[in-house]
Amino acid sequence: MISANFDWKHTNTKLSNDATTIGKSLSISPRIVESLIEKGYDSEDKINGFLNPQLSDLRDPFLLHDMEKACKRIFSAIENDEKITVYGDYDADGITSTSVMYETLENLGANVEYFVPNRFTDGYGPNPEVYKRLINDGTKLMVTVDNGVSGKESVDVANEMGCDVIITDHHQMPDELPDAYAIVHARYPGHEYPFGEFSGVGIAFKVATALLGELPEEFLDLAAIGTVADLVSLTDENRVIVKYGLQMIANTERPGLYSLANLAGIKEVVNEQSIGFGLAPRLNALGRMGSASSGVELLTTFDDIKAEELAKDTEDQNKKRRKFVEDISTEAIIQAQTQPESAVLVVYGQNWHEGVVGIVASRLVEQFHKPSIVMNLDTNTRILKGSGRSVEGFNLFDAINGMRDQMVSFGGHEMAVGLSIKEEDVTALTEHLDKYAKEHELSDQVKAPLNIFADLSCSDVNEDLFNQVQLLAPFGTDNEFPVFEFTPQNVTNVQTMGKDNSHLKFQMVDHGSKVNVLAFKNGALADDLLANSDAMKVAGHLEKNTWKGRTTIQIMLDDMYSSGVEIVDKRTQVVAKEMFEPAAAYLFFNEKLYNKLRPFVGSDSTVGLYPDLSSFDKFDNIIIVDCPSDISHLQDALSEISFNSVTFYLFKNHYIFKKGMPNRAQYAKLFKFIKTHNNIQIHDKVDEISRYLGIDRDIFIFMVDVFNELNFVYINDGIMNYNPDLVNSDLSNSHAYQNREKQIEAEKQLLTISKEKFKQAIRICLG
Description:
Blueprint: E1 7-10, H1 17-26, H2 30-38, H3 44-51, H4 67-79, E2 83-87, H5 92-107, E3 111-115, H6 128-136, E4 139-145, H7 152-160, E5 164-168, E6 182-184, H8 200-212, H9 220-229, H10 236-250, H11 255-263, H12 272-289, H13 293-300, H14 304-337, E7 345-350, H15 357-368, E8 372-378, E9 383-389, H16 396-401, E10 407-412, E11 416-422, H17 426-439, E12 449-456, H18 463-469, E13 483-486, E14 490-497, E15 503-510, E16 513-519, H19 526-531, E17 536-547, E18 550-562, E19 566-569, E20 585-588, H20 591-597, E21 606-609, E22 621-626, H21 631-640, E23 645-651, H22 664-676, E24 680-681, H23 686-693, H24 697-709, E25 713-716, E26 719-722, H25 735-750, H26 755-766
Parallel strand pairs: 1-12, 2-3, 2-4, 4-5, 5-6, 7-8, 12-13, 16-18, 19-23, 20-21, 20-22, 22-23
Antiparallel strand pairs: 8-9, 9-11, 10-11, 13-17, 14-15, 15-16, 17-18, 24-26, 25-26
């Protein structure tokens, strides 16, 4: 049984008149127009603006709070040769933010340096001790990027030491703001900018625009990387930044970015996935593994040799990061598997790199669908430090906040937390989380929604549809890939991929059309997919695949589930003891076989002989051991029992359909032989007589049974003679004759057909 990970939500399938009219006017699919109307783009001008964003759509940067004040102070610092330090952050957004601000100030002739905190020694965000050190080193103006609004203590330190602080940030505003010289923020209370969803680099880009007095298109590549990496809304100005930034990346003149893109395998096509899966993870790896300062140098240097060296180092750091993630994930999964009853997984180990435990926590959530906390144990202090990730609808921050007084440190939000705790308090944490999960009914939490754009058949998937969908790109937060639902007739060519077989590839087949599907991190479902191959619902988005000059459109899986009873086809002509080891309800149709194999069935299972089905409702998994002599018996059993999965052995060592029914000539030959011979020793000379008549032994015995039942002969003590008083009767009136016909039909319908047709036949039996 394959269950859906999401709650599939179908958007309005009815097309409005506006969608049809606008679609015709713009020469695009009305369905795409309708999806935009549902998002609030309710006129042709708005829809055209969304589909064709322009650089001129970027608003005046001086609409941002304190922008003019910030620019005046920066220009003053430049004129007076005051040392300016750009204080950044160690993730991809922070690195690109730092690069944009540093390069802008350097181009203006400023005496400028940058500082990127080390997550292990400096922590996240403004650090008062670091501020002191930088100011003592001559800094007169601190300009933060991608951080700062929560740095009240650090700003107070700077003010006391005579250093002004300009904050440029996008994070949530605290109740008490720092007493900074200027705060450039799109959501400043009472002075909100028309668009409030910028990333850190988005704000830095607006500051650069204001300082330079013109749109700095040369920074669009960096702005696009940070915007996509930080998962902010890809609408409005962010959509403009990313669309044109992707074009800049494809034609970048930054040698560091060019080298990094090559190492990431980014070739001809550059899109938001190139950033999300290629560039951003590599830049993020720097901050996870150590210092991210080299990331700023990589993006801002114009020395080709230096750029290549830095790119290679970044790639090496990413490889190390991936190795840490794989190794720790393996250990964490083993621990998690020992906690089947835990509502929230809490795992930890020694020498687990703290920079990647958040990624490992996300892996556990994906595999076990439970909130997960992953921590490293410092063997000297006996303090555990790590990260937690949650599932939709479960507030992990609130859950842990209930025992904040036992935490060494703690922070975060509903879906992600960072924490430190003494080893001796881990048991209390685990018990507290389980209690909280029960009180808040974690097991009953609603699944996250998956919006279905439209239902498609395999024949609908083509390059024209792909090109229509691409009109909505770039995709990301608030503008996700359109997800389509498929109900294929069958799923074939199921195979696992990857060095650890963790990925899955299969083919949907629908009325002669075929479409390939890639399902990353779903390799473990291969067997279940085969068992449900004729009853699958598949949801995914379109992707273009070019291989050896041939381009096809494939589906990237977003979710799938089996829509009916799981049917496992294990038809066999051989039985073995281990076939009866699984806990299940074993159903037999043949009494002799039932008596022979019953001892092999374990005590945690049940066994029954048709038509007695009284004990079978206790099991979700039913195993049909042998082939029934009448297919109606199977239909009756399947309709009477409630189950989620049914496995078919349908054991039968001799198939009678291969010999079929005797023909009229054979009946005539046997009848003539009986009529012309007396006292035939039928029991002792079966082989001799069947050879003499040229009739198969089993067929011969069957024919004798039919004649005996219809009183064409009489048999006493193994001696057979012709019955002179016989009454003519049609052979089909014999029960033996009728039963053999039913057996042949059952074998043909159940044993001779392909796996695909077999499952179709069983679905019919299931009604």
